[in-house]
Amino acid sequence: MTSPKKLWSSLIDRLRKLPDGSNAREYGLALMEWVKENRTNIGAEPVARFGLDWLSTLPLEEYLLESQDLSVPNEREILARQKPSSVEVVAMLVRDQIWELVTFKTQTECPNCGGDELRVLTEPGSGDRLVFACDSCGWAQDEYAKPWQGPPGCRPAKVSSLREHRLLSWTPAQVGPEEQEPNRTSDVDG
Ligand SMILES: [Zn+2]
Question: With a threshold of 0.90, does the pTM exceed it?
C-alpha cells in the first residue's frame, strides 16, 4: 500500500519535470498520464469514486478551450503545499485539477448556494442534452433553468457542444478575439 505522502511526492515530482512555460494542455496531459501510471497505487475504489478512470482517458483537446490560461509554476506550488492525509484525498485533489480543465464555467452564479459558477455537463445517455451544475452544493438545472434531477454520471460538455449551444458567445471573456463568432444575421431583425 502506497502512503499518501509518497504518492503525492511522485505527482509533484512529475509536475516539476514540466517546463515552466507549459500550457494547460501539457499540464492536463501530465496529470492524466500520472493517473494512468498510478492507478494501482491509488487503488480501485478511489479511482472509481472520483471517476479517475474516465477522466484520465478523455481526449483533452475536445474539452479544453484554446483560451484556457494557466501558470504551471503557480499550480504546482499550490499543490506542493498540500499535505493530503489519505490516498482518497490525493485522488480527490487530482480529480479537481483535471475537472477544472475539462469543465466550462458559465459565469452564472449557482441560484441555490451562490457559492460557485454553474458548470456545463451533459446528461448521461442523452447524447447532447446539457445540465448546468454546481460543484459546491450539487445543484443542477436544465437549459431552461428548471431544476434537473437525473441519473448520476454527468460528463463534462465538449467544446463542440458548447459552441453548438452558443455558450461560448455568452462569455466573451473566455474566448479569444479570433474565436468570436460574427453576429448571426438571423438574430437581428432588419
Ligand atoms: Zn451551489
Answer: no
